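TL;DR need structure tokens for one chain.
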Amino acid sequence: MSSRCRTHQQHGHHEHHILDYLQFLNDCPSSYHAAHLVAQRLVDAGFERQVESEPWSATPGGHVMVRDGATIAWVVPEYLAPTAGFRIVGAHTDSPTFVVKPHPTTRTTHGWEQINVEVYGGMLWNSWLDRELAIAGRLITDDGTEVLVRTGALARIPQLAIHLDRTVNADGLKLDPQRHLHPVWNVGTPADLMARVARDAGLHSAEQIVASDLNLIPTQGAAVFGADNQFIASGRQDNLSSVHAGLRALERLYDLGVPDSGDIVVFACFDHEEIGSDSRSGAAGPLLSDVLTRTATALGRNADGLGQMLAASWCVSADAAHSVHPNYVEHHDPDHFPVLGGGVVVKVNANQRYATDAVGQAMWRATCGAAEVPTQVFVSNNAMPCGSTIGPITATRLGIRTIDVGAGMLSMHSAREMTHVDDVVALSTALEGFWRSL
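>> reply
TL;DR here they are.
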């Protein structure tokens, strides 16, 4: 193939990937939608659904299961050597948002009806002001069925006019999450919010709903912008950027058929990372351990055999990474300047907020070199403690060698985050290379 044909083919792949990513962002308004969509796409690719309450399957081929807002997929090769381990990519499906409280609405003495919400995760509150908001999540009906729902635009958190707060620009915006982050959705004649949710879910009435897990989302869809459409703007890119990258990598890998040999490929998308991962579907819970243990057991491995597999395993924790902000360069370490479009970011922290060590960096550098993917390093400013990821949790719980990586981002935890098209493609290419280097 000529270099011109190869370049054209790569451009087409790049464009298709971005279009698919934009659609994926729009189709995943909650962790439950994301988990079910990942599982369905893998089933469409030939994976077998695994029900946790049924006997575990470790036959050669792809398997996938969903637990609430989390999903895990794994591919067993035709031949599994005694020295084989697990080759894991971990991500998370949740994002900072507003969660609807059990008593969903309240009415003021002036006739305003508002949605009662609770802050979930470390949100940039101000970014949610003056945006049309929808409701998304899952409903549990009176017959025990789980129904996914997404409404149209329903609510808004209107900001106080500058005429009534003349010092807001000079002194900064100050928000009380109980009083000021209270979305309005109706005024005048009373309305039934859950009746609207039930209608949009295709139910006959709100009486069918016995419980729900619902959150708010901005209704503005994902979009590209900038010179040559190089940037992507959307909510929930932390961390759907990694979920989609891993999904696309796994689809490409499986498109070539079941591997003849090598490690067991695992793709784990957890929920509740933004609030510490302490749940049955979070990385600090038993989910990944359950899948690895039951898979090893189904393959005939005893406890020592499982230990050998874990010792031979790797985990890439893929989560959004900080890019240098051009207006706030003083908030970054002066010698570690990852920028949008510069390649996959490797995240390093001496205090183990990230799990990356020298062995992991060497592995990742070799992987990205073989995949022809550029990389860069993030280390936080010493005066600005960084966040954390599922990486240290996975390394601590299972003893698996782990490295933290991700696509660079600006406006992280905003209602509308910003990434670069080259980085989300590069992350997917690198993850595919990690799985292929078995």
